From TrEMBL:
The keyword Cell cycle does not apply. Signal peptide: none annotated. This is Kallikrein related peptidase 12. GO terms for molecular function: serine-type endopeptidase activity. The lineage of its organism: Eukaryota, Metazoa, Chordata, Craniata, Vertebrata. InterPro entries: Peptidase_S1_PA, Peptidase_S1_PA_chymotrypsin, Peptidase_S1A, Trypsin_dom, TRYPSIN_SER. Keywords: Disulfide bond. GO terms for biological process: proteolysis. Gene3D superfamilies: Trypsin-like serine proteases. CDD domains: Tryp_SPc. Residues 1-154 form the Peptidase S1 domain. GO terms for cellular component: secretory granule. It comes from Rhinolophus ferrumequinum (Greater horseshoe bat).
């Protein structure tokens, strides 16, 4: 189920999330567990972790054979607004901005995990090469959607 306020990437990336209903339940084991939903929003400076199967630098690079993982920090809202003026909403959070450290094409929807809690989903970033110094990636801020997520899960 796509968030009802999502308008597509041609207008804005706001409300960029979708929940999937699985055909069969997931078997939870010691190795397979859901991430916790946030009770508060992570702030600038919070250390997080991203992972994904996207390209490691530019759109024309091949996709990796192994899951890529990276430690990354949340960037302050004011810094994010300065990098992307007029494009950042309260439903978005930025992370990264260190040379060579970023999510990239193919990572969209991947997790931004801070202290074992799902704080974001890879949404969008620079139109240039990934991992440019001073240009963070932009993530859907999950703390803004916990009520909607719980409501959809309850009804499905």
């Amino acid at each position: 189920m796509t968030h009802p306020d999502y308008q597509g990437t041609l207008k804005t990336h706001d409300h960029d999330l979708r929940l999937l209903r699985l055909g069969t339940p997931v078997l939870l084991t010691r190795s397979v567990q859901p991430l916790a939903l946030p009770t508060t929003c992570a702030e600038g400076g919070t250390q997080c972790h991203i992972s994904g199967w996207g390209t490691t630098n530019r759109p024309w690079n091949p996709f990796p054979d192994r899951l890529q993982c990276l430690n990354i920090s949340i960037v302050s809202s004011s810094t994010c607004q300065a990098v992307f003026p007029g494009r950042i909403t309260d439903n978005m959070v930025c992370a990264g901005g260190i040379t060579g450290e970023d999510a990239c094409q193919g990572d969209s929807g991947g997790p931004l995990v801070c202290g074992g809690v799902l704080q974001g989903l890879v949404s969008w970033g620079s139109v240039g090469p990934c991992g440019q110094k001073g240009i963070p990636g932009v993530y859907t801020y999950i703390c803004k959607y916990v009520d909607w997520i719980r409501e959809v899960m309850k009804n499905n």
